[in-house]
């Protein structure tokens, strides 16, 4: 009798657990377009991914804060938030309510109270039209730079990754998944590599461990809940050892069916943190995007999952200037004009959910509350990228076409970039510098209408097109004391 009661109680508990979770909703999952370039909603409409980064949202917020945050982000057009399940603060760090994510530091024993709050915030987001791209567990639990995963307490390995992935995928079947973060499947002792280089050592050939099989098990588990077309990528670091694969998801896992979208982290530094380790330059965040977009073989939507955060110091180092709205706007426009399927914004204090007096700020930017920094200007401007693209009748059929720019396009964050409508109905040109644009308009039928789009407020003003232009036309951007960058929209 006792055992029956216990059994019944546990069945009921399991049942309650399932109901409390997030119900499958057929309109939540996103898919990939037939040409592999962009995301689509369940009814086939193109979806431009406009993400904000709030890694610690589930871990450090309470419900009124999460509501304030999501209301703000929804009002600024964000349709995606990046957040983590088992956080980067370690398995012994409780959430706002004193709960740990796991029971007995066991990755296969989720603590229901912890995840019930995750569900609550996930549902709050969806009520506002915001999906959550979930990192099930930070890369730290598979391979940390000190080579002690999860500080020795919790390890995700081939013995448990499938079970954890399956549990996670069953609970959140509809959301896009980002495997791990800030790491790579080939890991070695990064501390030692950096130390060697900074002491002037010659780059060596390092032994590395291939953690790919752990990723495979995790992905396989996630697919049990979300199905074979689940959106899954990995989120690599921005630097890696000489001679290793470049740090994009596809450079490691191009042959895996579970990799349904490609991603990189162009990162926060405009100098090599540990020269000569290869790294992505934050002022050329478009570079990995172009590499992913232009690679041969399987075509997938591409995203820069982590570009320089607004109000984060260059390389996260105090004493360096911090990235401002202009920097993050330029980087995101350039990524989108390089063919990315969306953009990722982040603000340093929002990403880590800093609350003065409650948490220790990590020193990577000026310490201000998350609630102050949700107001940073870049967060309002980023929606204008989506606007200027989706306002075109040819959207999403827009392809990067640098050949229409005559003369020097500039380098780094001065680089001018162009998108051409596949049906030649439009050219859209982004200039970060406000220099005169000389454009080869011969692909457009005349007459052409021309307008300037203001990347800060999203307004259009008509531009003059010379009545007798030849194939090459010059356009002089307006001047405005608050910004140099403009988008020229030419439509046939
Ligand atoms: C799915 O989500 C949409 C959008 O929030 C909502 O309108 C709809 O009622 C939901 N469907 C179910 C079955 O919950
Ligand atoms: C959440 O925390 C804030 C302090 O940041 C506090 O003012 C508020 O009352 C809390 N809300 C709830 C529901 O506990
Ligand atoms: C978890 O790891 C930390 C850091 O290594 C250690 O101080 C702590 O005692 C560990 N906790 C448990 C429960 O093993
Ligand atoms: C990693 O390298 C650092 C620097 O050489 C060293 O202090 C540390 O013990 C190494 N860790 C492991 C786990 O090998
Ligand atoms: C933003 O920072 C850049 C350097 O990264 C600087 O050139 C620019 O003037 C700054 N813009 C504003 C508006 O402060
Ligand atoms: C971008 O323009 C600024 C201002 O003219 C200049 O200082 C910088 O060197 C330029 N950078 C590149 C890569 O052209
Ligand atoms: C302009 O583009 C056309 C193709 O659309 C090309 O044939 C022509 O050579 C280009 N003209 C210049 C000046 O680049
Ligand atoms: C300058 O740009 C700002 C931001 O887009 C806009 O609000 C303002 O109206 C512009 N000023 C002029 C004189 O065009
Ligand atoms: C457009 O041309 C008219 C007439 O030449 C001129 O008055 C006006 O300033 C021009 N506008 C722009 C934005 O160049
Ligand atoms: C356009 O090109 C023709 C032929 O090359 C040339 O005669 C004419 O002067 C050009 N017109 C302008 C406005 O540049």
UniProtKB/TrEMBL annotation:
Where do the TM regions start and end? Answer: none
Show the PANTHER family listed in the entry.
DUF4038 DOMAIN-CONTAINING PROTEIN (PTHR37836:SF2), LMO1036 PROTEIN (PTHR37836)
Keyword Transferase attributed: no
* Pfam families assigned to the protein according to its UniProt record, in alphabetical order: Apiosidase (PF13204), Collagen_bind_2 (PF12904)
Q: Which UniProt keywords apply?
A: Signal
Task: Cite the InterPro entries for this sequence.
Answer: Apiosidase-like_cat_dom, Collagen-bd_put, GH
Name the domain of life this protein comes from.
Answer: Eukaryota
- Quote the Gene3D superfamilies the UniProt record gives: Glycosidases
Residue span of the signal peptide, if any? Answer: 1-21
Ranges for domain Apiosidase-like catalytic come to 33-393
Please indicate if the UniProt record lists Signal as a keyword: yes
Report the protein name in the record. Answer: DUF4038 domain-containing protein
Q: Which residues form a coiled coil?
A: none
Outline the extent of the Putative collagen-binding domain: 399-491
């Amino acid at each position: 009798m006792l055992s029956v009661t216990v059994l019944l109680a546990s069945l009921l508990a399991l049942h309650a657990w399932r109901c409390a979770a997030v119900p499958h909703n057929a309109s939540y999952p996103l898919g990939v377009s037939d040409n592999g370039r962009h995301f689509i909603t369940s009814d086939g409409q193109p979806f431009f991914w406009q993400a904000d980064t709030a890694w610690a949202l589930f871990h450090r917020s309470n419900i009124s804060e999460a509501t304030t945050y999501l209301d703000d982000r929804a009002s600024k057009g964000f349709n995606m938030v990046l957040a983590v399940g088992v956080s980067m603060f370690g398995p012994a760090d409780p959430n706002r309510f004193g709960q740990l994510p796991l029971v007995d530091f066991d990755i296969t024993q989720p603590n229901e109270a912890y995840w019930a709050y995750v569900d609550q915030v996930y549902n709050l987001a969806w009520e506002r039209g915001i999906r959550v791209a979930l990192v099930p567990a930070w890369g730290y639990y598979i391979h940390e730079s000190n080579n002690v995963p999860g500080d020795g307490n919790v390890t995700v390995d081939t013995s448990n990754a499938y079970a954890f992935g399956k549990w996670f995928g069953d609970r959140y079947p509809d959301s896009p998944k980002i495997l791990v973060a800030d790491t790579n499947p080939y890991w070695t002792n990064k501390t030692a590599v950096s130390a060697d280089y900074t002491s002037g050592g010659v780059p060596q050939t390092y032994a590395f461990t291939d953690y790919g099989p752990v990723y495979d098990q995790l992905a396989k588990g996630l697919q049990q809940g979300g199905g074979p077309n689940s959106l899954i990528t990995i989120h690599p670091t921005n630097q890696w050892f000489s001679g290793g694969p470049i740090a994009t998801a596809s450079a490691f896992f191009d042959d895996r069916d579970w990799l349904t979208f490609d991603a990189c982290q162009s990162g926060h530094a405009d100098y090599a943190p540990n020269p000569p380790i290869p790294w992505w330059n934050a002022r050329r965040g478009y570079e990995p995007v172009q590499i992913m977009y232009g690679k041969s073989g399987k075509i997938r939507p591409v995203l820069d999952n982590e570009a320089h955060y607004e109000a984060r110091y260059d390389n996260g180092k105090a004493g360096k200037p911090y990235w401002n709205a202009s920097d993050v706007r330029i980087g995101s426009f350039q990524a989108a004009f390089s063919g990315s399927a969306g953009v990722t914004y982040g603000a340093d204090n929002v990403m880590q959910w800093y609350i003065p007096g409650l948490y220790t700020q990590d020193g990577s930017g000026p310490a201000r509350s998350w609630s102050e920094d949700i107001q940073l200007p870049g967060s309002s401007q980023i929606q204008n990228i989506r606007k200027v693209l989706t306002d075109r009748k040819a959207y999403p059929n827009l392809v990067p076409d640098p050949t229409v720019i005559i003369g020097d396009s500039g380098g780094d964050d001065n680089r001018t970039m162009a998108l051409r409508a596949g049906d030649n109905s439009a050219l859209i040109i982004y200039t970060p510098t406000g220099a005169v644009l000389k454009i080869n308009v011969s692909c457009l039928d005349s007459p052409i209408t021309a307008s300037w789009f203001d990347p800060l407020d999203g307004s259009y003003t008509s531009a003059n097109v010379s009545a007798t232009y030849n194939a090459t036309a010059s356009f002089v951007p307006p001047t405005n004391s608050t910004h140099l960058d403009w988008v020229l929209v030419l439509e046939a």
